[in-house]
Amino acid sequence: xxxxxxxxxxxxxAMFQGYCLQYFYGSFLESRMRNxxxxxxxxxxxxxxxxxxxxxxxxxxxxxxxxxxxxxLPAGIMAAVNYVFYRAGGKMRVFLIAVFMAVSEISVFxxxxxxxxxxxxxxxxxxxxxxxxxxxxxxLSAFVHVTVIGINILVFMVSAIVMYCLLKGxxxxxxxxxxxxxxxxxxxxxxxxxxGVLVCSLLRAILLTVEDGTPxxxxxxxxxxxxxxxxxxxxxLLSIVFGVRLFQDMIYRNREKSSRIIxxxxxxxxxxxxxxxxxxYSGIRGMKHDMKNTLSVIMxxxxxxxxLQAYLEELNQTMSRLEFRFxxxxxxxxxxxxxxxxxxxxTVPDLRMDVEGLQFPEKLFIQSxxxxxxxxxxxxxxxxxxxxxxxxxxxxxxxxxxxxxQKRELFFLKVENSFDGRLVWRRQEEFPMTDKADRExxxxxxxNIKSTAEKYHGTMDFKVxxxxxxxxxxxxxxxxxxxxxx
Length: 486
Prior knowledge:
This protein is an alpha+beta fold. It contains 13 helices and nine strands. Helix content is 65%, strand content 11%. Strands 5-6-7-9-8 form a five-stranded mixed sheet. Strands 1-2 form a two-stranded antiparallel ribbon.
């Protein structure tokens, strides 16, 4: 009975570890199969079968070769499952294998501490036998077998719960799963895991000793280790999770720093363009006014001379075209719209840009360069989407529509654009991924828009309607919230 239950527990344990492995891999990596469930099931079965086979082949002694094989063979199995069923870079693969090995090993040894309860119960049954509370040796044997089976089941349940919860915690803490891990960062991430694996290897080597031909546990010689060993194992597990969280915080800080630098560059660029465009715009208005008066006088003097009069009328029409294509009354917005429009029409000449619905209240307390940052990032994303659409479908309609309105103290800005209908998402990420190679300096436009809107106690949202991407920004337009600098 005991042997049957032990084998069943071995099979269930191997399959459960396979389930945890496919869950852990699936949280970070893309499946090779289209159906994620079938991919996960196949990974679970393969790992379970190989793990059971490895349990049969592994040496039962705790010598140097046995300890080495207990580390190398499971790592090889995990690498094989990773390679067969998941797509991943080398560094991410190393991180996942190291963490899974550490968590699985530590959870087993941590649960083994609960197995000491069985020794206490068996000693109690022996005492009951001596006091004749247990009638016969067969009853004692039955009690011992039931106790051993129950303790094995308890150890399995505790290790399973610890393993699943820890792997889930690591997967949740590591939110930037698409981040390209460097060599130094990889070493920082796997060091706690490697330490945990080595601690478990040390425990495996010294846990059982033989004295006078009788196997004894190290806990029998040093009872205080019953409390010290679990504390070390728990600290090892915590170091893995908190190491990942610290790494995640480092990514956030670096991204925030990069975002701030880009924002500062955008503000500086806007200020330069605004000053230059304001001078040009003022000069064009003055020149147009003067030239119109001059042309009017010349046309009166040239009455009766048809060729000269036709030439002057053409010149007058040319002067009329010296106007901004888009005029909203806001210098920053006018500069951006005209600059971005001329930029996009070089690659997408048939783009339709509609800004008729873009209106600003008379009293605008939102700083103009903040509106410029929001519109600039939104237009960059919309223009890139239109370029990709036209590259794939040359006959497709490319458009950008911008509108705004104010409701009480809230100012709403909406940017709609056509796109190819494809967004790249990763689980637990707030924004779609950029498909550009330099992901550190690209793909943060939506984050910049959101952070700028939050300066005015606002927010940003986006949705997809068919092949139309709709970006909505809401901000509070209140006096004292911020001063309009332009």
